[in-house]
Amino acid sequence: MVVPLAKESVESRHGISGIIGTGKCESYLIFSSETSLGDAFRIFLYFMGLAYCFIGLSAITARFFWSMENVVKHSRKVVEIDPYNNTKIVRYEKVWNFTIADISLLAFGTSFPQISLATIDAIRNIGNLYAGGLGPGTLVGSAAFDLFPIHAVCVVVPKAGELKKISDIGVWLVELAWSFWAYIWLYIILEVWTPNVITLWEALLTVLQYGLLLTHAYAQDKRWPYLSLPMERTQRPEEWVPPETSICKQEFQAHENDQRSIVDIFSIHDKDEKVYHEVPGHDVGESSRSNFLEDMDENADHPHVLTMWKQQFLDALSLKTSESKKQYNIYLRLARLCWRLLLAPWRLLFAFVPPYHIAHGWLAFICSLIFISGIAYVVTKLTDLISCVSGINPYVIAFTALASGTSWPDLVASKIAAERQTTADSAIANITCSNSVNIYVGIGVPWLINTAYNFIAYKEPLKIKDAAGLSFSLLVFFSTSVACIAVLVFRRLTLGAELGGPRLWAWITCIFFMLLWLIFVVLSSLKISDII
């Protein structure tokens, strides 16, 4: 009798029609007195809380991106003996392959809000025969946000006339193929093999395909025979972020903060040895405004580390910046002050993230992901409350507000990559790979958790409510994504690059991508709500 009870609890929670909150919603976020407020006012408060969480996600993503830069640029020293004269030859090689870094660190990290949200939803749903609705809906909606609005932003980010193209088309085609296959695979297991249910083996195969993606992309990057496409590539820069940009930013930072007494670590690229060297002797502060500190020696003095960490808290509490001091318009200065005051709680909280140079950025990278998970948990609670109070189908919220908000780190990371890197590889790879990560990991892991529990406890598969609506969204996404990729290919053939170009054509492309996103959102929402 346990299984019917589990099923009944799910149906009572979601409703036969997928509508929640037809009566008075007795759930609350912090205080029980919230239930005495009017429904309209509660919805407004919860949406404001959701928006504030998305602002926090954007702020922590910036720290995540800079920490990841330190992880990716790390080199190791390799000593070899010359067989002819028996002398030592010292060379330096990168620890991380750029292609693997794009797929794993960048795509996985920026997709972590969606992955965390889906995993939390799955853990809360353990014991039920039906899968939670927030995870799959958010991840499919996030895929549409990644492909359309983020491409739209990246196209217009380069300066007028500046062109940025993908240097390794072969790797991009492999990533794109696996991204498309991810959604084809999802449709197959939802509608063809086992309609409306997910088995343990289907969930396991979904997760394992992420490893196949990594292997195939690496094989293409290294041009392994029989496993790679025979396509030439232009030379990609040695550094994940061009050193000229970093040096320029740091010189500006050193000039701006020359009153502070903290050692600056400059990184200069030697073209012969292809490695970063430290150049001491400049005063600079760790500022949450700049975020461009380079890798510091592992044996750095602890007082320097503590001082830099302390400076993060001082910067978080400071409401004035050099930009605001240069702003003579009183209204703009006031607006900037209000904005920094609004961000102050997030800035103070994220100041606990260690400086980026410690342990080659790994400590800051992991701490950033932990904060992202915490915010994702609050987002799931707020989304439940909005659905409960308003009666809006949770899938509709997942496709729209939740998908857009949790995809904000993807947008920030791709925008930064499009601005700072000389090629479009990482900006576009983050989009295509994030979509693959969303399916193989973001949906695969939560479904694996639920199917494993149901198989052990009930000997039953995981049932998917609103599977027809989800499948319809996949078809719409696939159709609109073909149009998006066709435009990128057309730009490559005509302009010679995927991003940038003449301002008029860049904005036309941007508007077209946004229209594709609106088509996806409207059609998916109408189908989920049983209007079409």
From TrEMBL:
Name the major location: membrane
* Range of residues in the leader sequence: none
* Highest taxon of the lineage: Eukaryota
Question: Which cellular compartments is it found in?
Answer: Endomembrane system
The alphabetical list of record keywords is: Ion transport, Membrane, Transmembrane, Transmembrane helix, Transport
Protein's GO biological process: metal ion transport; transmembrane transport
Q: How does it sit in the membrane?
A: Multi-pass membrane protein
The cellular component terms of Gene Ontology attached to this UniProt record, alphabetical and capped at eight, are:
endomembrane system; membrane
Residue limits of the Sodium/calcium exchanger membrane region domain?
Answer: 46-217, 360-524
Q: Report the transmembrane regions from the record.
A: 43-66, 169-188, 200-219, 359-378, 385-405, 470-492, 504-526
| The protein's name | Magnesium/proton exchanger isoform X3
Q: What is the lineage of its organism?
A: Eukaryota, Viridiplantae, Streptophyta, Embryophyta, Tracheophyta
The gene coding this protein: LOC111482471
